[in-house]
Design goal:
By secondary structure, this protein is mostly beta strands. It has one helix spanning 3-27, and strands at residues 40-49, 57-69, 74-87, 95-101, 104-107, 113-115, 117-122, 127-132, 139-142, 146-155, 159-168, 176-179, 184-185, 191-194, 197-200. The protein has an 8-stranded antiparallel barrel with strand order 3-4-7-8-10-9-6-5.
Length: 203
């Protein structure tokens, strides 16, 4: 699907959602004083997200349900069974960059993602990142700048530990934050990352 058709599809979906949402809400309004809920919930959904701030990337999701709320201008994914970020760079085929797991994921009107907790696996380097929110701040995936979270645990062949006040671009080339005691860097690990998988280091 081209970016143009993806945008048209997205706009059509939002328009249809608005029509359905208001139709359902006003047809089912109770006679009492309870405030109506806005939005439409879709079951068993697969869809792609084309971020305007990151035109080389496309996110593909599979969720048990998606709630589209035109009043809040956000989509909420519940029961996320599959999340992937794919990259298309000049002269190279589309490549899987990372996978994402979360109980619930919110997509705002800038295509940024937020969650209370999330797990990502970055294929280049075989990094597993477990993000945790706090009472003041959620886990954020900003399509322009990358990740941020109050805390994250990292596991890979060369790194293992936890970092507070974590920020990083998608490629983990400039990780910022405070390492907790016990953070380790392996200069000669027993395993290596090979084609997105952790394998024993060749003898």
């Amino acid at each position: 699907m081209s970016r143009y058709h993806a945008c048209v599809f997205r706009a059509s979906l939002i328009f249809l959602s608005c029509v359905l949402a208001f139709g359902v809400v006003f047809s089912l309004l109770p006679s009492g004083s309870a405030a109506p809920r806005s939005g439409v919930t879709l079951q068993g959904v697969r869809f792609s997200l084309y971020p305007e701030q990151d035109r080389n990337a496309v996110w593909r999701f599979q969720a048990r349900q998606v709630t589209i709320d035109p009043l809040k201008d956000q989509n909420t994914l519940g029961g996320l069974g599959k999340g992937e970020r794919w990259l298309t760079l000049p002269g190279r085929p589309e490549t899987l960059d990372l996978t994402l797991k979360a109980d619930e994921l919110v997509i705002d009107n800038s295509d940024n993602l937020t969650a209370k907790q999330a797990q990502m696996y970055v294929l280049d380097g075989c990094y597993t990142l477990n993000f945790q929110s706090s009472a003041e701040k959620q886990v954020v995936i900003d399509q322009r700048s990358g990740y941020s979270a109050p805390s994250v645990s990292i596991a890979s062949p060369s790194l293992n530990g936890e970092i507070d006040n974590f920020t990083s671009p998608f490629d983990l080339s400039n990780v910022q934050g405070t390492q907790r005691p016990g953070f380790t860097v392996q200069t000669n690990p027993t395993t290596v990352c090979q084609n997105g998988r952790i394998v024993p280091r060749p003898l």
